[in-house]
Amino acid sequence: MLNISKDRVGGLVFLLFSVTYGYYAQQILLMPGDVSQAFNAQTLPNALAIVGVILSMVLLVTAKTSFENRVDLVGYQFSLVIKLLLLIIVFAGALKWLGFMLSTILFLVVGFWLLGEKSVKRILQVAIPFTVCTWFILAKLLDVYLASGKLFTVFLGA
Amino acid sequence: MWDGIYTGITTAVMPFNLLMVFAGCFAGTFIGMLPGLGPVSAVALMIPITYGLDPSSGIILMAGVYYGAVFGGSTSSILINAPGCASTVVTAFDGYPLARQKQAGKALAIAAYSSFTGGTIGAIILLFAAPALAKVSLSFQSSDYFALMFLGFTAVAAFSGKGQVVKALIMCVFGLMIATVGTDVTSGIPRFTFGSLEVIDGVSFLLLAMATFALAEILMTVMRGDHNNAENAIDIKDVGSMKLTKAEVKEIAPTMVRSSLFGFLVGVLPGAGATIASFLAYGFERTLASAKDKLKFGKGSLKGLAAPESANNAASTGSFVPLLTLGIPGSGTTAIMLGALIAYGIQPGPRLFVDNPEIFWSVIISMYIGNLVLLVMNLPLIPYIARLLSIPSQILIPLVLFFSITGVYLVSFNTFDIVMMVAIAGIAIFLRLLDFAMAPMLLGFILGGIMESNLARALAIHDGSLSFLWERPLTMWIIIIAFLVLLLPPLLGGINKFREKKYIEKAVLGNTGD
Fold first, then answer.
1. Residue A39 to residue B317: CA distance in whole angstroms
2. Cross-chain residue pair A93–B187, CB shorter than 8 Å
3. I need a surface site. Which of B27, B244, B327, B333 has the fewest CB within 10 A?
């Protein structure tokens, strides 16, 4: 268990974020006449950066150091969540290259397996009918255009 | 008003809209039942579907999903002690012990009757309160709107829980900051886009809502390992009798009425929502109960189950009052609905009552129909719907993930959006681990654009001076109320501490007396 309070970590992160946000708020280009205006594209971002800095300072100062407020990362399945997030990114790429049907089957098969379903028969029994049904509803009933994957259009000329 | 009600009834009872109420209630019950997915996620999952519907049907569907999800959350609270959402946490206090005593059917029936009572009483009050408030708010100016939005933020912060006020305010500011990404509406200047065309139109509301609620919520469930937690499950296939005796009805009826009225009032407060209402109603009923009844609380008390169920449904209805009349959402769910309305090009607020009476009234009428659907259709079907809980989580979770992702993808057909969702979900999980709530962020994001344009207008009218904050009485009073609301938590905390101290003193004195 890390001996850091959640409030302190949160306060510090938001302080850094607000300062960075404030810096980029200063970089917003203004129209020549806007500079002298009471309200321009920079006004709200600048105000938000200042409020953000003040609030994060308040959080840092009033941070609770109680036992419950400490950063506790024990017992969380981080690796599984990271794998699922990576799977979603791969799914995004697969949608482009393999098209809706194949990428969805791939996503579901790997997803079921990652979450602990080891029966290949069961994985396929759910993934394939579910994907076909969803594709049918979207493409045929709702008339949603689902592009074929680039792999088929570019390389196989389908 | 009666013309409006007539318009509302005719719109709400149109076959397609009735279908939306039915579909919404069912879908909501299904989604709400899944541990980890609450009304906010359920409504967020519906956004892509509503894009293809007309505004009335879309909002009616969302309202149905909202009710269904609250009801579904109660079901999983009672049957597997895993509340689908925060507002049904209290339901598990007495609902789950009842299920353990082989009275799951009775507990589900009480939850349904209480939800119906809460929803009905809420809808009736809304019918009269909303137009009255809308008429008053027609005289509001830009400065008043700016002040009202400020009130919304402080209210969300105030009701976010002990020690969470600053964090909630930070999240509001964070949401406002995200809202500034993209082209500035007033000047047309791109802000924080870093030359990327993908964010030139700003961050999509749908993407943000789905990533922070649907996706992050389900991934949090996985991360905590809750999806493997099946030890609490009772026999879902046999929930027992759903009948209540006359004595039981007599026992819970006053509780239901009291808690409904109480819940509605709490729900109307921007930011308070159904969770606070259910906790307060439970506490209130326990205080009112006789010494003998008090002992039953937490062990399967019928009153203890009826109170939070009536209150959370009435509060869900109540949270529509600030949304429909002022354009300020009363809860995370109504914040998403506000976003959906804005996406339709409809500005909720006092003008909604005048410009789009069919939406205003049909939402109110459909709420009543939704409550009826939940009672008449969902209750008898609960034993069957509850079987969803027996679908293994390793199958269910990837399917829910798939729905969240494709929900966003099918609107834009841009795979960059999916990658952005992953990034936002990652940030949301990090913030959740540090105990930062997501609802204030979403509220800030949704209100950001409107707040900026109202502030700009108010400053333009007052020659660039902030004097409108104290020169216009209405604005000044709203700002004063906003600050007072912010001071509520420490004040209530102090009162509670004082009460606890008194209670302990009394108990100690009582014991020594024996």
1. 38
2. no
3. B244
